[in-house]
Design a protein that fits this description.
The protein is α/β, with parallel strands linked by helices and 147 residues long. It contains four helices and seven strands. It has a five-stranded mixed β-sheet with strand order 3-5-4-6-7, sandwiched between helices. The protein has a two-stranded antiparallel sheet with strand order 1-2. Bound molecules: zinc ion (ZN). Zinc ion binds next to loops. The site of zinc ion (ZN) has 8 residues, from loops.
Length: 147
């Protein structure tokens, strides 16, 4: 019997139960039928943040950014590439700190870009400053503690 994991849909945030050994098979959301892994960062808002950051069994790597931030915009393609490489081991998501000021305040974001790795509501690591795609992957995997 395979362990099953709760995976929030990247589109509608519905929680889907997926056997751990089926994560690579490209399952679809039971509610909206979207693919459970799009290979791209999820747009995180106050309404879907809890599903991805707390209730999900997947670790969540969040990029806190803003449209006016040059280094954030430069890092975006690297973060997209990291999402393609790191799914389905973890979910990647982006918080626009201009639109989601309450989320930015909750995490005490002082500079952007800031990356925070979360798992079931717990902060595992954070890093301020832009990184390349490979550094993002290395940093995130190093802080998963051998998962
Ligand atoms: Zn869905």
């Amino acid at each position: 019997m395979s362990e099953s994991l709760l995976i929030p849909c990247p589109h509608c945030a519905a929680l889907n139960r997926v056997p751990a050994d089926r994560l690579n098979d490209g399952g679809h959301c039971g509610r909206c039928k979207a693919g459970l892994f799009a290979g791209a960062p999820v747009h995180l808002t106050e309404s879907n943040f809890g599903a991805h950051a707390q209730r999900s069994d997947l670790p969540l790597l969040v990029d806190f950014w803003a449209p006016w931030c040059g280094p954030c915009r430069s890092m975006a393609p690297a973060f997209d590439a990291a999402a393609r490489a790191l799914e389905p081991r973890m979910r990647l998501g982006k918080v626009n700190t201009e639109e989601e000021q309450a989320l930015a305040a909750r995490f005490g974001i002082r500079s952007i870009p800031t990356l925070i790795l979360l798992h079931q509501g717990r902060e595992l690591a954070r890093q301020a400053g832009a990184m390349g795609a490979e550094d993002i992957q290395r940093w995130a995997l190093a802080h998963l503690g051998g998962r």
